[in-house]
Amino acid sequence: MKKLAEVLKDWEAVIGLEVHTELTTLDTKMFCNCKLSHDDPPNTNVCPVCLGMPGALPVPNRKAIQYIVMAGLATNCQIQRRSMFYRKHYFYPDMAKNFQTTQGPVAICMHGHLDLAVSGEGASERPAWETLAGDGETPIEREKDGSYVAPIRILRIHMEEDAAKMVHVGGEEGRITAATESLIDYNRCGTPLIELVTEPDLRTPEEARLFMEKLQQTFKTLGISDCSLESGSMRCDGNVSLRRRGETKLGTKTEMKNINSFKSLHDALEYEICRQAEVLEEGGIVYQETRHWEPSRHRTVVMRVKETADDYRLFPDPDLAPFDLTDDFIEEARAKIPELPDAKRDRYVADFGLKRADAAQLAGDPSTAETFEKSVALAPDKAAKTVAKVMVNLVPAYKALAPAQIASISALLDEDAITFSQAKDVLEAVDGTDRDPAAVVDERGMRQVSDTGALEPIVDEVLARCTDQVQQYHDGNKKVVGYLVGQCMKASKGTGNPKLFNKLLRQKLEA
């Protein structure tokens, strides 16, 4: 099987995503007052509505509707004033009433978009000669480093209810095939679920991964879901087809299931693109089907032939009246939207002078952004860059550091009292406690000497005995300064400021 880069020279991949997100921060389910929780014993949070008992009538969750409007506004969607719920029929035990309540042709949120910034190695997946976005109209301009921004259109975001959780015991990788028995928990049944469907505008596995990542950051910032791929509160299906370069007609698509991580999304799409290319180049046929991703074997396998809309016998739900959203309701939802990750990233770059990549990493997670801003507020003036450096490079390695501790270690680094290497030891000592890093530094005698008068004799002594390295420097080997700094640090027993040693050595060597 060819590698992805080789395949994409001749074939264009057309990718669309369907992202399902449970509104986990709500208290109750979508159409009843049952508690919303997956941690309770199986089948304890159920009622006649969840279980589809005859005569049970659903009542929509107002806050869930507000949440989907917030999601639509945050993704530049048009909010539809009038929409309705439909019944999507299928026979399977994860929905006891044998239909799922969902939305029909008109969803609450329609026709949005997100701009996707692609950089690094991922940017090389899209061939450099591709100059148009997935809509076939918008130009894509690449920076010198190969990075680019691609607009990804969103067809719709609709509201529906989640199905029950099924566990297949004894089956391979949790599948029903060869399972000895299947267990079902209706606690999840009826959980408010929003489904975002993109247009087929994505062109590489990396673009799909980044889109999913950006959507997770957006929804977490809105506070509507914990967006956990591991626990299943955020799930993704990937649709992919191939067509020859230069063609406009879409090929036959397959749908990837069992995507529970960003890596799995990328790897499943990469495998499927290469598999389809091999089939087509050998004269075979790609069938419209649903395929299961097996991460342990790094392959996709057929699950079932893909259903069509007709198979579900969709019709308006007679138990639920159409929605008529007012301008006041929409504006109430808009007022609850906090600063979104892209805007926060740009503010960090403008206000604190951070690198764009560092700013994006800090702004992408609400709790990380909150910790960063609290730490900056406690740190000395102009120490924001150091705080960012600490949070990006050091903090993730530890479990429980308070903003005051991050501010303290940043101040020590900013004044060259300790090295970055020493900072790791200090943070390890204070992690999970309320101790001040500055106190640990003083207790251990780690504070570095930055007095030029105290360091100059050490520099003179090192230069006097390292005559070979001094000659190498004068012969053009400037890197030898690193060795000389190490000798100075050794002579000072680690108490000297390495930056100041470096400066003094260069001054004296150039004199």
Would you kindly provide a brief summary of this structure?
37% of the residues lie in helices and 20% in strands. The chain has helices at residues 4-10, 62-74, 205-222, 262-281, 327-335, 341-352, 356-363, 366-378, 384-393, 403-414, 420-430, 437-443, 452-465, 467-474, 480-491, 498-510, and strands at residues 11-22, 78-79, 82-83, 85-89, 99-103, 109-118, 148-161, 165-169, 181-185, 192-198, 234-244, 254-259, 289-294, 299-305, 315-316, 323-324. Helix 3 (205-222) packs antiparallel against helix 4, helix 13 crosses helix 16 and helix 15 (480-491) crosses helix 16.
Describe this structure in words.
With 511 residues, this protein is of the alpha+beta class. 37% of the residues lie in helices and 20% in strands. It has three domains: 4-334, no CATH class; 341-443, no CATH class; 452-510, Arc Repressor Mutant, subunit A (Orthogonal Bundle). It has 16 helices and 16 strands. Helix 9 packs across helix 10 (403-414) and helix 13 (452-465) packs across helix 15 (480-491). The radius of gyration is 29 Å and the shape is globular.
